[in-house]
Amino acid sequence: MIATKIHFVSAVRERxxxxxxxxDVVVERMMIALxxxxxxxxxxxxxxxxxxxxxxxxxxxxxKFGRVQFTIDMLPSDILGSExxxxxxxxxxxxxxxxxxxxxLADEINRAAPKVQSALLEAMQERKxxxxxxxxxxxxxxxxxxxxxxxxxxxxFELPEAQLDRFMLCHRIGYPTPDQEETVLRRQLKMGxxxxxxxxxxxxxxxxISDEPVCGLDDLVGxxxxxxxxxxxxxxxxxxxxxxxxxxxxxxxxLGCSPRAGLALVQAARARAxxxxxxxxxxxxxxxxxxxxxxxxIRLSYEALxxxxxxxxxxxxxxxxxx
Amino acid sequence: MKFLRVIAVCLIASTLAGAEDAHPIGIEEGxxxxxxxxxxxxxxxxxxxxxxxxLGSVEKSDGGFTxxxxxxxxxxxxxxxxxxxxxxxxxPAAELGDRTFHVATILPPDHDGALTPYIPSAFPWxxxxxxxxxxxxxxxxxGWGAFLWFGRRRNAVAxxxxxxxxxxxxxxxxxxxxxxxxxxxxxxxxxxxxxxxTAYWRDKLGLGDQRMADELASLREHPEAGSLxxxxxxxxxxxxxxxxxxxxxxxxxxxxxxxHAGKEVMV
Lengths: 323, 267
Hints:
The complex is a heterodimer.
Chain A: H1 2-5, H2 7-19, H3 24-36, E1 40-43, H4 50-60, E2 65-69, H5 76-80, E3 81-86, E4 91-96, E5 103-107, H6 114-126, E6 128-131, E7 134-137, E8 143-148, H7 161-164, E9 169-172, H8 178-191, E10 193-196, E11 199-202, H9 217-229, H10 234-249, E12 253-255, H11 259-275, H12 283-294, E13 299-300, H13 302-306, H14 311-322
Parallel strand pairs in A: 1-8, 1-9, 2-5, 5-8
Antiparallel strand pairs in A: 3-4, 6-7, 10-11, 12-13
Chain B: H1 2-20, E1 23-24, E2 29-35, E3 41-42, E4 51-61, E5 64-73, E6 77-80, E7 85-86, E8 100-104, H2 129-160, H3 169-181, H4 187-204, H5 212-221, H6 223-236, H7 244-255, E9 257-260, E10 263-266
Parallel strand pairs in B: 1-8
Antiparallel strand pairs in B: 2-5, 3-7, 4-5, 6-8, 9-10
Helix pairs in contact in B: 3-4, 3-7, 4-6, 5-6
């Protein structure tokens, strides 16, 4: 079963590799989010191909893709939509916002005011939007990939823990290796010019994204169904429960993981097992995903912060207790 | 006894003062007197005066003016008020006549002026007050000595007591391995067995400073540890698990443990 469906993953990966150099782990996390219907938060400095990656995956899977650049003056209706008075007919008609898509890229989500963040996060949780007096279901699948710049914090509104909890995964994107960066430069040199209306502009990586999807919605749904069949042993669930328990009892942690963390661990581990061509999860899945599932759900105590400890260190302590 | 004497003297003094409107020597007293004129002033006094009079306040009242006097008597007897007041122009206040302050002694009239001798009473317990203080001092010093001696002895015992060594991974593993071999290990035990196996090999290969995920990847590349981990995963996580024979083979090396050079090791 896995073998017949895994071409979905490899096809998407190959398509992404045509445009983006490296970032295999990010692609894997995006696949996990796609396959589980969980939302993904990407933390990374500008220029690490976050938008390009999301764009490429959306086109590769033939999903409706929307992108919203969050700013401080944005209103909830800019995301969700609103009712407009049609002067010709004298009737209100619903204008659906960019949230009505399969894959929504919420760029720099922490730049929007909390009411906009809340509006989006409610849509993420309930998968429906109420405009006026009418509830509108969001398209299926619906996935939000949000980005945050971890460096610039001026003029931003940090997402509170309760809202961060809605993201199944929070992945920290690093810089490419020197070899990968050299490959990026070489690719750029070969891109050439794009001629438009008699003028010309140097091509960017976005111009290299093929409009031809490598698989369709049916393939995605089939793969999602297969992920649901991935076997999760009792022992693995004990490990997950123990992991969550450790976060709640660690002396350096003020706020431990919610039950959602355990659910996210199991779901994400299933999807990772599928991506790794297994039909059962193993502890490696837990250890690989723990950082993305747990780290944004815990808050260190004041004493631990005063001692200069970092959440990553505390998480590693807990993982070493676990194995 | 001395305390009782003081109370008795006070009672006598208060009885005398109350009976004759007398005021005791050396104690400031106060009294209100109504006079016809309101402009009397205290006369200047020298340091040999038998009475000090201070004028507190003058208030107009129905019969004239009410004077609030404060005075201290130094000699017993009657002291004329006229001798201590004067008119504003300095002339004597002769019209006050025989109005007097009566100052009385609190000692009996036939007292010879001798001081009451101090007669210490005998301390009734432990042979006297000094003996009691000595005893308390000795007990206090002995108490400190005992405290220090017992404290040092306890520390010495604690220092010489052999510390129980922390159980090795092999020791911690054994009950789980035995239970697994007998097929009596539940899923919680299996999870603990897997954690201990991983920790055992991390410890054996000297890992521990890397990310856990990286350490696990290193273990998987190790010929012996990697084989074990894969077998464990097949047994504990794969649908269908492993047969009893496979489990027996997997656990066999961990069931045969020996003690080598005082430390338990797996073979």
